[in-house]
Amino acid sequence: MTDDRWALAAELADVGRVVRAAVGIPRGAADAEVVRTAGGDDVFGVDDRADEVLVAELSRRCGPRWPGRLVIEGFDEAVAVGDPSGPWRYLADPVDGSRPWLWGKRSAWVLLGAGREAATLADLEVGASVELPTANAGAALTAWAVRDEGEPRAELDTAGEIPGGSRAVTLRPLDGGRLDHRFVTVMRYSVGTKAVLGAWEDEVLAGLHTYEDPYLSTGGLLMEIALGRQAAAFDPRPLVAPAAMSSHPYDLAGWIVPAAAGVLVEALPSGPLAAPLDTSTGVAWAAYANDEIAAQLRPRVAAALG
Predict the structure, then answer these.
(1) Domain final residue, candidates 142, 169, 196
(2) Residue 276 carries which DSSP code?
(3) Residue from 230, 296, 218 nearest 263 by CA
(4) Residue 179 and residue 163: Cα distance in Å, rounded?
(5) Strand-strand pairing, 68-72 and 88-96
(6) Which of 15, 75, 235, 303 makes the best surface tag, with the fewest CB within 10 Å?
(7) Within the chain, where are the H helices?
(8) In Å, what is the CA distance from 160 to each residue of 94, 149, 157, 247?
(9) Measured distance CA(33)–CA(56) in Å, rounded
(10) How many domains in the chain?
(11) CATH number where 280 lies
(12) Residues 232 and 122 reside in one and the same domain
């Protein structure tokens, strides 16, 4: 069964690679236009292109062996993956972080997860996170994992026109409990809600000398922690600023990957990721690079949440 789940995780990673190859780099104004609003978010032209490729490729690769249904950003209803009565529940965000990626600022991510009869994020068994690099990047990360089955497998793929291939890399979060001069980010992007979220952040981080990385990608922030570039990240928006756009379950579709690397990914208040696999639920979450950092920040977070 373990080998079968690793095979599925690898297929999810390859689905992400196919999406990356199909999407390429932003193609101009058409990619940045909002073509519809569905499945929990605005759907840009690039999202629309990625949706079609992901659904078709997932069905082709996974439908015969791991049939079920897919919950995906941009679709209000679940999509069949092979026989829709099959046991597997898939979750995907074809382009997480499209806004900064469209402007060439930061990578976006293809995020996928799956679990048998999965009803919540905590039920996912396998995951993949595949980087969509900016136009001038020379490489892009692909990582996949099986829950409770050891470290993730990760490869750095050559990107763009540069010849080459892939090489194995290791995801290694920060060790130790030092927080000063490290990045701890609170997601707070929506105009009109920054003050209340900033006040919450100030309470949590009072007395600490930390930096923030306003990366408009939940999957990207989680991978930054897995790569040792960030100590912790939080999305308290559903609890602190309900009017703000918040993370949805599909934004955490790849959470198994950073978790397998050692990142503690959990709900706010602290607990399992109990959000249902839908496109509408706001997810309040926290992620810590290790137990020592979590032990320092969890009490602060709990106090700030009241």
Answers:
(1) 169
(2) B
(3) 230
(4) 39
(5) parallel
(6) 303
(7) 2-23, 29-32, 45-62, 98-102, 194-204, 218-226, 237-240, 256-261, 291-305
(8) 19, 33, 10, 30
(9) 23
(10) 2
(11) 3.40.190.80
(12) no
User: Which residue carries 């919450």 as its tokens?
Assistant: 200
User: Would you give the distance in Å from CA 15 to the centre of its chain?
Assistant: 15
The Cα 306–Cα 299 span in angstroms is 11
Tokens describing residue 120: 């919540």
Read off the pLDDT of residues 111-122 as tens digits, 9 standing for 90 and up: 999 999 999 999
| 3-state class (DSSP) for residue 2 | helix
What whole-number distance in Å separates Cα of residue 221 and Cα of residue 227?
10
Q: Does one domain contain both 154 and 59?
A: yes
- Dihedral of the alpha carbons of 27, 29, 33, 39, in degrees to the nearest 10: 10
Specify the pLDDT at position 256.
99
Q: Do 160 and 193 belong together in one domain? A: no
The helix/strand/coil state of 232 is strand
* CA atoms within a 13 Å half-sphere pointing along the CA-CB vector of 178: 6
pLDDT in tens, 229-271: 999 999 999 999 998 889 999 999 999 999 999 999 999 999 9
The letter for the amino acid at 42 is: D
Whether residue 211 is contained in a domain is answered as yes
The percentage of residues in the chain with a pLDDT greater than 90, rounded to a whole number, is: 79
Provide the pLDDT confidence category of residue 158 given band limits of 50, 70 and 90. Answer: confident
Question: Can you give the residue range of the structural domain that contains 209?
Answer: 184-305
- What does the block give as tokens for 188? 């707070």
The verdict on 225 and 157 lying in the same domain is: no
Whether residue 103 is found in the same domain as residue 27: yes
**Which positions ≥6 away from 209 have C-beta within 8 Å?**
180, 181
Q: Are residues 112 and 163 in the same domain?
A: yes
Residue 177 lies in a domain: no
CA distance 142 to 13: 7
Tokens 């078709």 correspond to 56
Contact (Cβ atoms closer than 8 angstroms) between residue 94 and residue 110: yes
